[in-house]
Amino acid sequence: MNLEKQAVYNRWINILAVVIPLVVALLLGIRQKIDLGEWTKALPHLNGGINSLTAVLLLVGRWYIKKGNIAVHRRVMTGAFLLGSAFLVSYVLYHVSNDSTSFGSVNPFVRGIYYFLLISHIALSVVVVWFVLRAVYFAFSGQIEAHRRVVKYAYPIWLYVSITGVVVYLMISPYYS
């Protein structure tokens, strides 16, 4: 791939890695909720499932690449990427149409764990966008060494974000109305 084309892709990755979290933050900050219907109340449960399946696919994808099965690895990781994209859409739809749910535990230890996981999950979900977009770009453009270098960081962050998303969901799910 020529350097000019590569620069264009890198620029788009950098733009998306900034714009996606900003747009999500702006949409979450909207006080006036949009009535999309009662079906949106089920989205947190769907999101918990999506995060669970994403974590499983990440582990399976790693297993396949360690076994040298590049074709299955690519399909599995593409599935994880598509699930992450679906999660993002579902998450935004829920939050533009429903008020946030407060964590109801009064136990200070449990609250500390919950907020540590939530804050680290949110912060790393912003960071991981850039890494995942680069990993996908490098993989699909055949830049395997660059893909391996970025995956050293992308994979553990993405796995952490997926798993903590599930844990945070399980901790707050009793408080959904």
TrEMBL record:
Pfam families found in the cross-reference section: DUF420
Residues annotated as signal peptide: none
Keyword annotations: Membrane, Transmembrane, Transmembrane helix
Superkingdom to which the source organism belongs: Bacteria
Annotated TM spans: 12-30, 42-64, 76-94, 114-133, 153-172
Protein name: DUF420 domain-containing protein
